[in-house]
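Supplementary Methods, section 5.1.

A reviewer requested that the exact input to the structure prediction be made available. We therefore reproduce it here, unchanged from the version used in the analyses.
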Amino acid sequence: MNSPYMDIILDSESNSEILDIGNNQQFPGKIRTRFAKKLIRNSLRASTIDAIFASVFSLGTGGVLLSNFLVELNATPVIFGMLSSIPMIVNFIQPIGAYISEKTHSRFQYSLVTFGASRLLWISLLIGITAHSQNLLNNQKLIILTLIILLGSNLLAALGAPSWLSWLAMIIPSKLRGRYFGLRTSAANLTNLLCVPLAGIMISHWYSGSIQGYGLVVLISIIFGIMALGCQYFQVDINPQIQNHQLTEFSPTENNHSPANSNNSTQESSIISSLCQNTNFLIFLLYFSIWMLAVHLSAPFFNLYLLDTLNLDVSLVTIYSSLQTGANLLMLIFWGKLADKIGNRYILIFVGLLVAITPLLWIGISNRELDIWLWLPLLHIFAGITWGGIDICTTNMYLTIAPTRNQSIYFAIAAAVAGVSGALGTTIGGFITQIPYLGGLIGLFAISSILRFLGLIPLMFVKEPER
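The structure derived from this sequence is encoded token-by-token as follows.
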């Protein structure tokens, strides 16, 4: 795949044929990265289709469907904690992935290798389910195999994630990020809204059992995951070497650390020094880490509460999930446009307060008819509305406050810190559920709510660049 023409110039005005997508606040002289409008439009369209196909892969290899699969195998709450902690704790290797990606010559090729291997690894689970149906694997061994596959798949995806996000950050016009991510996520959520109930019905009514039914869903998910990578071929490719070299060339404050004037160790020292001096980014990391720990202290156990404690059928739980996705879908574009107008920090603080009280609303929920058909649907709709604002604005915040040069490394550090914190939260949450005098799951929900409120305090001191 040939990299399209990329031009970084000193100019203060945009013209009618070239689209400005740079972050001018990061560089003296108003440095702007420009691509042809047609290339940008085609890239964003391809990225949206990529999101649709990738969402099918994600719903089949995670979320409520994977949780139900483990429930069928009689997994313990500790296993559920690991199920949620693994995708987060592997983010500690994102800085390594970012460093490797900055040495490559194509964002597309690097994404193809990392994400392709990550998704093809799930074929091993199909083999495991087949062996289980032939009584060659017992429940415990299949659970262990599932966790190993989840670990390997997410490790590979973590290596590719910072490069992929940096790729999108360079393509999407900065003034349109909120609206575009709202549209992209809406398309993915609409896919989830339609596909999750169908997958749930397929699993619960499969003629040979729900475990084999889940195997069919995984097979379909892998196919769509590979199709999603094919869509990335049509995105404008970026050579990280050229990107960083040109940004250094036009940034006087970083000229002394350009590849032509320093060795790799000096370059790395420059990155570390820049990070340590970026107080605003460090405060954001503090907020992000506390928030992720507080959220994931309880997040993986809501589905466990529904499937195990309340003993609800998976098809009913997928309906709740679809209601949450539908509410999220309806509000995403609204949140995106609002973020473009008033900024992301204000939304994160206000909506964060609403998200902080959500676990408390689960206290007292039982398997009464009123709870099953009224309160649980309302809770999921409320969660869908609020989390739409959190997801979009969090992404926009670290796209905005991270410097453009070596951007993927900043993204990786944010993901690594948040991932380790979130994994710690789910691990602690799993052990808290085993302590009777703390109230089990209900006590866990209360503790999570308190920590969410505390996590919002550092966010008040984060400065969002003027829009």
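The longest strand covers residues 31-36. These observations are discussed further in the main text.
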